[in-house]
Amino acid sequence: MKRSGSELLKSINLRPFVESLIAILVGFIIGAIVLIAFGYNPFEAYYWLFHGALGSTYGIASTLKYATPIMLTALTFAIGTRTGIFNIGAESSFYFGAIAAVIFTNIWDNMVFGLVMGMLFGALWALPPAVLKVYRGVHEVISTIMLNWIGWFFVLWLIIGPYANPNDPNKTIRIPVDARLPEIGYGLSIAIVIAIVAAVLTYFLLWHTTTGFGMRASGMNQKAARYAGMNPKMAVMLSFLIGGLLSGLGGAMKIMGEGPGYAISQGGANIYGFGFDGIGVALVGRNHPLGIILSAIFFGMLRAGTALMQVRAQVPLEIIKVIQGIIVITVAIPSLYDLVKKALRRGAA
Amino acid sequence: MERTPIIEMKGIVKVYPDGTKALKGVDLTVYEGEILGLLGENGAGKTTLMKTLFGMLHPTSGKILIRGKEVQFKSPSDAIAQGIGMVHQHFTLVEVFDALHNIILGMEGHGLFSKIDVDKAKERLQKLMDDLNFKVPLETPVEDLPVGVQQRIEILKMLYRDVDVLILDEPTAVLTPVEVEELFRVLRQLKEEGKTIIFISHKLNEVMDLTDRVTVIRKGEVVGTVNTSEATPQLLARMMVGRDVVLRIEKPPKEPGEPILRVENLKVRGDRGEVAVNGLSFDVRAGEIFGIAGVEGNGQTELIEAISGLRKVEEGKIYLQGKDITGKGPRELYDLGMAHVPEDRTHMGLILDMTVTENSLLGLHWRPDFQYVKGVINWNKAREHARSLIEQFDISAPGTEAPVKALSGGNQQKLIVAREVSKEPVFIIAAQPTRGVDVASTEYIRNYLVKLRNEGKAVLLVSADLDEVIQLSDRMGIIYEGEFMGVVKPEEVSTEEIGMMMGGIRYEEIRK
Amino acid sequence: MDAGSVISILITSLMAMVPIVLTSVGAAWSERAGVVSIGYEGVLLMSAFFGAIFAELAGSAVVGLLGGMLVGILLGMLHGALTVYLKGDHVIPGIGINLLAMGVVPFGILAYWGTAGQHQLPQDAQMWHLQTAYGDLSPMVFVTMAIALVTWWVLFKTPLGLRVRSVGENPEAADALGINVEKYRFWSAVYGHALAGLGGAFMSVDWLGLVHKTMSGGRGFIALANMVFSGWNPLVSLIGGWLFGFFDALAAWLAPKHIIPGQFILMLPYIMTLVIVAGIIGKARPPKADGKPYKRE
In this structure, is residue A336 part of a structural domain? Predict the structure, then answer.
């Protein structure tokens, strides 16, 4: 028993990684079939897709820009799953992060203040489902769906009501110049760096602290966690609050870091849907913060490449959502790895 | 008695996927119209054998014949179709349905889309209940009914299906003495009506009282079958336990020291709000194993949970080394020198999806030795710790980073014991420490408990295995409905006397 | 508010009720059997799209409705295969289906009709409506009421319903009595998604007469809220669904009047549902084995 190095190596499980790759492959193959069915050339489409996303500094910058918000909402979902809850409330925490950034930077035009308030309000909005879960046993899927809607209508009212821009009623007032996130270049702000740091910190929390150990233990077996002197109720609360905080941060950075508008646009169009997309990102990243960094960048790449694909190959950009949907459905297949392995073996024989 | 075999099981072998050999070639014959007792200790294979007969488990090899014809059951419904019904220890009732709908489920009559004829079903059930003088409320959701009534519903469910053979798995475990009497009356009446009954039990007196013949099973093999009229409890006990005393425990005499744990007038409620522990007082001293014996479900679980801080104390006090620990949580208790081998290994003692390292850190993770700075876990130290537990307790594991579910039951249990002992406790609760554990590990664990006692620790042993309690304990309390019927030294009482106390007779009354 | 606008709101809410109620009824049946799905949003959208294609090709709205149901059936089979037979998680496939719909429909509208985001259906592909002075009423309103009633009756009065509920409450008990848990669960999931498919096609070929890339507008989730609100009871979900539709219509009516912001009206049903599930008023208890895969030991 002195082979701790090789033991550790053996413990690194490649299976989830391979499963995600298989799912991505399946997504592209079915996407190609759909393209062919409608008379498009999939090779041309995919070529321009990847070219658009990775073929230039601008492309890479937009890949990372699109990866940022979904990375954070994916972390929300993942931290929930790791503590045994199905938190799909990232969507509305994201709205609150965005609107809080708009409101509070206009009170004090300080970047850090804006981010903190975004996180705070994202976390606050995650409090009701946490309390309902812990004290009344309300299933979080139900409560977060309700709260997503309540939050949506409330934020929508703020957008077109009190915080509408008097000069441009379709948008909210802008983030003051001094509170905006500094740009790295090509429209990419430091938001991506903050998001990656958040992912690494989430990983550290879950796998290297006693708090995280308690959260993961509670997620797998509440009874055993309680027996071991941990506090499963606290774990659930923390999971919701940290999750809300991360999505709130995502919402705030979406508005504070993306020019030229630096405002929430008409009907909330630029803050809608990131929570749901984040779930897909988390699933493909196998609910692991480091996997999520990769999968968010992958999803961001798909999104960034569409512009060029649409122009050069005349393929509607929605094909990307088709591919994403197929990927998520494919990762939902249990023991995909074994199924594929069996199929390959049968094919070889 | 006519001697027509209704059931013949021949050479039944059952090997579980994890390699455990639960049945090693069992032959069993059941004659029509008899009550056959199936006697054996916990884990002897009685339930496994009956589940293969009922179609819930598929035998690895062997044949089952019903009325001389070989059958292969894919599921319980095949067995029911052949007239075999079973009432499990854990009921299979739909809790929100009433008794009526639970009973008729699956044989509602008519087509799937026509209205259920509730009146007709009720009429038929009423007749069934009247004939047996065995009543249940038909229109109350079963979740609102007491356990005894739920069991009746299970029996009626089978009778409604016109089964000829009724298997009952430890049916008296959940019943009060009066309910047991009532059950036996009904079973005898069913026998008179020509039904065949297989009665699984590990209780000698019940088997003596009720059955016509007894088949004794030990470790997956049939020891023998005797006519009850020719048997004595002593004979059955010897067959059940085996001639050779399997395990040798060296236990030198030792004078116990100061009381470490003191329980005073403790009252605790169970999950359904009933009083599970009713004013219990006792102490466990340094260098002593205090055993608690009793039929399962008499408050043992609630008692352990109350002491270990997992369940609310209704009344009374608990002291550890003179310090009041009533109402303290597990973490504080561990810090104060308690350790706890829980009775439910897979649901409480371990987190199966976590690694050996992570599991060996449960309940120790906040100790400064395992942290770099406060709150940050030092996994290198944790791995070292896991490795030392593996070595010290000779646990066979693929590695420290393997998930703990890859370990066999015996090794999982050894890991728990190892972890708890590594907390360096002054007081340790050992609940069902060897349940479902292989012989070698059992011996190891039992000897280790004695070693702890010899080192001057206080050990509270709670076990459904009576022999274990008798062999290991310096003193033992026999618990019945949350109260001690007596606290005795094992060498001062006979097994029969312990059995009587387990059945609810107080020691004073026995000795009178 | 005069009588005319009241009647007009009521009629609008009856139409708005149809997709929500159909989906709620289907979801209630499916969850009673223990299969959870949050993919109804995607089912509604995709069946609205494909239902319109069917209707156009056949020149018949009824064929469109059936085509929408077919889409629901296929998606239900996909969901059932993943959750019931492969014992996978119940929530994740729905997320995939929703994402897929958000791609397939806008892509399809553009690729099939060549228009961006929206397509108006020709008259022959649209459902016949009862014309009243206060607005149109579709015969589907009555079909929906009938479906809710019959589903309720079958669920609570017949052997089939008893078995469906038993596999959602205690699959072990059902299995022990010879009820094929997987079969009942699988087809329950299919029925649930089929009704949502019908509701989706109703939106395009009947109610609105057009296909729009976001036309489901969250109704799949609203229907789930309504299912919970109605205590997993198909008959009650008729009332719940009408309430949701009513608030929708009320908010639309209030919007230009600037009395109360419409958003606050729209929030109400969700707040009420939350209050109900929290047990603050009434109680809502899901089936015991809802969303839990069943594996025999």
Answer: no
